[in-house]
Amino acid sequence: MILRGEVRNAEALGRMLQQGRALQGMSQRQLAERLGIGQKWVWEMEQGKPGILTDRLFEMLRATGVRLYAEIDEPIDQPSKRKGNDG
């Protein structure tokens, strides 16, 4: 695990998504293509742009006392450092 943090609002969620994408070595365009969405949507999510879904989600979390955490793991496609030592 590289990073763990509480996500209290859309901006914090966007920062975590941006950091995760960057650690995977992907551009916004590459991520958008992989997900079948527009690059603008990726940019808006990473900027924490207000939206009805995220606004209501964080309102519900606050109202119910629920905390949301995000973790960013090691890059998925990075070669294992242990590969040469396994055999």
UniProtKB/TrEMBL annotation:
SUPFAM superfamilies assigned to the protein according to its UniProt record, in alphabetical order: lambda repressor-like DNA-binding domains
GO molecular function: DNA binding
Ranges for domain HTH cro/C1-type: 17-72
Pfam family, one: HTH_31
PROSITE patterns: HTH_CROC1
CDD domains (alphabetical): HTH_XRE (cd00093)
Protein name: Transcriptional regulator with XRE-family HTH domain
Organism the protein comes from: Arthrobacter pigmenti
Lineage of origin: Bacteria, Bacillati, Actinomycetota, Actinomycetes, Micrococcales
